């Protein structure tokens, strides 16, 4: 009895302890999720305030220009005659009828009211889209979806363009989402979508989607509402209606030039490719019909699969492609396609949403290099994203076993660190599998474009104050080198100039190997050593980010741009010191981004990576020769000080150190992990002995 009572008390104590521990853990998880949700909502609020401040902070003559064109004192809605006499008004006659009462509003009040009203529409759009995600969704997804959706909308070019211009393009998207997801009655849903089509005629493509998914009453009400709104506008504005629907054939020819980059439709793309006349029209109609048929079939399939939001996005992408003109503020449908799930591996799932977000948030020149052969892709990038979503992207159906459970990511076993608190971010575990190549290339391109933009901006520029600051810092570096007896730049420069073959060698090395070798190292690591690729890529990214901070805080004139030193610029030619911009070179790159030297920093990174990972001693030796040749080239050509190379080494060391501190020691390779075999299971408890009678 005593033993039983003791065991019962021990069990109760264990149960209480386990319950308390579990409760504390669950409460901590809930608190963490609440904190994360608050942070996400704060981010969305900051982005919203930032966008409104950017609009209202713009001079009155430069903001809400489309709204001013319509309802301003000299706007087309004030002028007698047709709304389309100047081709500046691109909306339907029904849009003009709805906007006409705004001409009586005070200009200042209208600007503020329109901006904040548009902001509220964006918030409503994000909330509805978040609630329309295919069910079931996890609790975490439901908590985070709304602020993330609003943030993505705020960052997107269509919303920014709409806020800046004062357009109505958010209204049709919001009305369609209300009709598809919020309103239960088919009559009300059809009326909402029909009114949306009265604002943007290609929205009528949602009628077949409603019909083939069993909402035939809604289809009838969609057509009826569109016809009623159009008839009302025709009765009130007969001349304008005839001009829009007959003369301009549903708005063709209104607004900017149809072959302009802002028109991301098939019609605009064909015109940019040089086609015109009957051939272009026939090809546009044929391609548009093919895209409409294929896209609507896919949309119906996804709607029947329970992915109605994806079906709406696909239909919207079809509307973008087949419209004669699809201006930037009308392309919000493409962003909704981010909800589709693509890929069987968990590591591939980010490719499609990241690509869509980048295409809809960044200028096309940041996503593709400035090469003539890529101009057809760059000029039609949003259209290509819409066509891909509508016709070819293999979105996972919900019936697929990979929809909710993609092939999981493999992680390397943790490597013990020498320090107690390393890694600081333990959930950033080392991944064994090779990353998605397209995603890596896209992120590398965007990162480099952002790096180039920041590097160019991180200086006083070509103005006299920036030049004086950079030259003052140059004298500081020269004084420090003289104190340390490192001022060898003038001697090395003039010694190399006297030997033609050596000068040509260093000029070629300086211009050619800066990008080729790092990209080659990354390519080999990606293909042969994916685990080490991630480690090396991360450390290089940290080093480059730290270098940007250096460029920003310490603009420095290199020796070749220091008057009075007698340096010979062997790479760029003779510099005219009477011109503060030193010719056209400053328009291409930041001439004062010398400290730290990324020429040497990237070469040192290559040398360290090769020395650590290369399997043969001669490979390691060749790898270490690269930073030696690079530091010789940057000094001999007059492009860097010796201390710039020291700074480059410092940021590379800091980048490797940050990678170590945040993620821990470099993980074992795939081969080593495979040889080690799977971790042994924990020893099982011994089976209790059975009493024998």
**What are the segments in which pLDDT stays under 50 over at least 5 consecutive residues?**
1-22, 580-588, 673-693
Mean pLDDT across all residues, rounded? Answer: 83
State the separation between the terminal residues, measured CA to CA: 23 Å
Q: Rg to the nearest angstrom?
A: 31 Å
Number of helices: 28
> In percent, how much strand structure appears in the residues?
under 5%
Structural class: mainly alpha
Count every beta strand, where a strand is a DSSP E run of 2 or more residues.
0
Q: Can you write the helix and strand succession as a string?
A: HHHHHHHHHHHHHHHHHHHHHHHHHHHH
Largest beta-sheet details: none
- Helix coverage percent: 55-70%
What would you call the shape?
globular
Write up what this structure looks like.
Among the domains are: 252-409, no CATH class; 437-672. The chain has helices at 2-56, 65-71, 93-99, 107-131, 139-155, 157-165, 170-182, 186-199, 206-212, 216-236, 238-247, 266-272, 277-304, 308-322, 332-336, 351-361, 364-367, 375-379, 381-392, 437-457, 464-484, 489-497, 500-528, 530-553, 598-613, 617-636, 642-663, 670-676. The protein has 28 helices and no strands. Residues 1-22, 580-588 and 673-693 have low confidence and may be disordered. Helix 1 packs antiparallel against helix 4 (107-131). It starts with a helix and ends in a 17-residue tail after the last helix. It is globular, with a radius of gyration of 31 Å. The protein is mainly alpha-helical.
Topology:
Elements: H1 2-56, H2 65-71, H3 93-99, H4 107-131, H5 139-155, H6 157-165, H7 170-182, H8 186-199, H9 206-212, H10 216-236, H11 238-247, H12 266-272, H13 277-304, H14 308-322, H15 332-336, H16 351-361, H17 364-367, H18 375-379, H19 381-392, H20 437-457, H21 464-484, H22 489-497, H23 500-528, H24 530-553, H25 598-613, H26 617-636, H27 642-663, H28 670-676
Helix pairs in contact: 1-4, 1-5, 3-10, 4-5, 4-7, 7-8, 8-10, 9-10, 10-11, 12-13, 13-14, 13-19, 14-19, 20-24, 23-24, 23-25, 23-26, 24-25, 24-27, 25-26, 25-27
